[in-house]
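Per reviewer request, we include the raw input and output of the structure prediction for the construct analysed in the revised manuscript.
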Amino acid sequence: MTRKSFTVLAFTCLSAAVALALALHPSPADAQREAILLCPSTMPSDRTELECRCEQAGSGASVWGTDFYTDDSSLCPAAVHAGAIPASGGDIRVRTLPGRDYYTGSRRNGISTSDYGSWRRTIVFEGASSVTEGSRGVPACPATYNASGTGWSGTCRCLDTDAGAVWGTGVYTADSNLCRAARHAGVVGAAGGLVQVTAAPGQASYAGSTRNGVTTNDWGSYGDSFRVSAVN
């Protein structure tokens, strides 16, 4: 064997040994990545926090809510909708919160979610800018005031003001689109925002009008109403 052949053989053996060592003893970063489990389809009932890895998330799964989701929503599509990961997947951190009176659906990041009423437990995703930076824990407004029952007052966040029927001016029927009414009242603009909602008694009649680019309708007697105002 020549000296050149011996050198090549030694280098080949050394490379193989290094590769074997790396395979048997991965770097801390690789080991940490491998330790993160693939996400289950929904949040386990016995967990309050979970870190897991989403593979590519499809758009056909069931998700209820926006930023704040029912805990039986499909985890990875909800994480994409929340902006915590891209559609190609990634690592997520999810935690639970108490249940809410309502969950408002929307379309975001290629994922469509649905409205839902009262549910026992909520999930949110850490790293989703809409939750950690913008929403300050304020839930999205229901599509109509009475979607979460009547007689309630509180603060919610309008996501969409472009569509929905509204009856009244200043005082609106409970089945009116809440965010469209808020835009009509001048509380929010086309981009939405925070709204203070206050329950009001039913009226004998409701007069429609055109304000701020929104036209509302007349109506007769209705059992429940609401008002909207700016959040201070």
